[in-house]
Amino acid sequence: MERRFSSKRRNRNKEKVENLYKILGTRSNIGQGRIKEKYIEKVKEFPPETHPEEFQEIRRAYEILRDVNKRKQYDMRRKYGEKLEKIMEDAIFSMAKGEFEKAEELIGYVLEVDPDNIPVRLTQAELFLDMEDIEKFYDVVDGIIEECDTDEKQYILFIKFTMLHSNEYHEEAFAALEKGEEYITDTEEYHKLKIRAFLDSGNFQQAWGEFKHALPSVNNLTIGDLNMLTCWLNVAMNLGKWGEISKIQNYIRKLSKTIIDEEEFFILREDLLEEADSYQEVSRYREADIFLQLAGQIFPKDEVVRERRKEIQPIAKLEGELDRLFKDREVIPYVSMKIQEMFAEEYFDNEYYDEFLNNYPHEMMEEMEQLKEDIACGILRVKKKYPSLYKEFKEELTDLFNESTKGLNREQRRRLR
What is d(CA 40, CA 45) in angstroms, rounded to the nearest whole number? Predict the structure, then answer.
């Protein structure tokens, strides 16, 4: 018999908090990293096409439990009722206002009522970090780790790491992970945590080395790995590791072949298009095209994907040639910079075009402006080696060539042939 989810509102005066964990088919002690896995399992059981009401309940439960802060608030409401929830809301509000003494007093009151309340104790630890009292922070969190079950120790350790890192105690965060390494059994989540921390710090190179440990083998991928795969692809592009792109794309293609559920296909398609959108918004067309190319391979009949790729691909080709042009030592930088200016004017939005102009090397360009023969020679090389760029900006480059060859003597003109 199929399970039904009740959507009726209960009596307001005797409202019992519904069990969101039960809706997802799990228990309240589930690790944060497994919430999405349980959500996907339930969506497979109750797809939106055939079970729209049940799907909405599942989605709502997932949206609350996937967010660490929302989950913490829900757990308190479910276990301790409205009174303690109100006190903790006041405490968290006081923390946000910087009223640390008041927050400490309120949290202390809640812990007198229920000293084993782990979410409240973690909030107390967060308060001590806000107060820059790291010793008290350690006392609270290490006490929780010592007292909790073996299976839960690693997740409290992960929370400890995240709190320290987000408060810019970066060295202390990694030292805490190393110290608690004996508790870690979920190695994939461990490496994912390190990746997020490295990326938050802008350390793409160190994050890069963690990806091979944070993912299962290419034949064991699930939709739950999609976020880490797209993150891996983004890091590769940010580091300029273009030779690795096809390998990562292959991982995502392999993932797509394991999917049989329409909801998961929808998630995959939306993720690829959102990534492409985010790059297009900042005028990074080559990166946008990489995601659209992948979407086109996985969804070859999708008209939206095809139209987006048709729009972006020619611009991405220009951008690729422009990247190569800047590395070409036979082309004077003046020419490369002029073409970059033409490209920016045509394809950057106003904000990024203004930023480009603010960083424009005016002095350098003025100094090289007199190198007429070198400029003309550079334009001829662009015509020969970078046909897409030359075709796109032919009129402007022709004018620049004619201007640069004015006044050249016969020998100089002969060298340009």
Answer: 9
Per residue in 12-63, pLDDT (tens digit) is: 333 456 889 999 999 888 888 888 888 998 989 998 888 888 888 998 899 8
The CA distance from 412 to 417, in Å, is 9
pTM (predicted TM-score): 0.67
Is residue 216 a contact partner of residue 191, using CB atoms and an 8 Å limit? Answer: no
pLDDT for 17: 64
| 224 Cβ neighbours under 8 A, 6+ residues apart | 36, 37, 40
Task: Report the 10 Å Cβ neighbour count for 417.
Answer: 5
Which are the contacts of 157, defined by CB distance < 8 A and separation ≥ 6? Answer: 145, 176, 177, 180, 183, 184
**Does residue 396 fall inside a structural domain?**
yes
Distance CA 168, CA 70 (A): 23
CA-to-CA distance for 309 and 253, rounded, in angstroms? 17
Domain containing 365: what range? 328-415
Q: What's the whole-number average pLDDT of the chain?
A: 88
341 occurs within a structural domain:
yes
Average pLDDT over residues 133-162: 92
CA–CA separation, 117 vs 37, rounded Å? 26
- Asked if residue 271 belongs to a domain, the reply is no
The DSSP string of 251-311 is HHHHHHHH---HHHHHHHHHHHHHHHHHHHHTT-HHHHHHHHHHHHHHSTT-HHHHHHHHH
Amino acid present at 210:
E
CA distance 50 to 58: 14
Q: What interhelical angle do 333-347 and 303-326 show, nearest 10?
A: 160
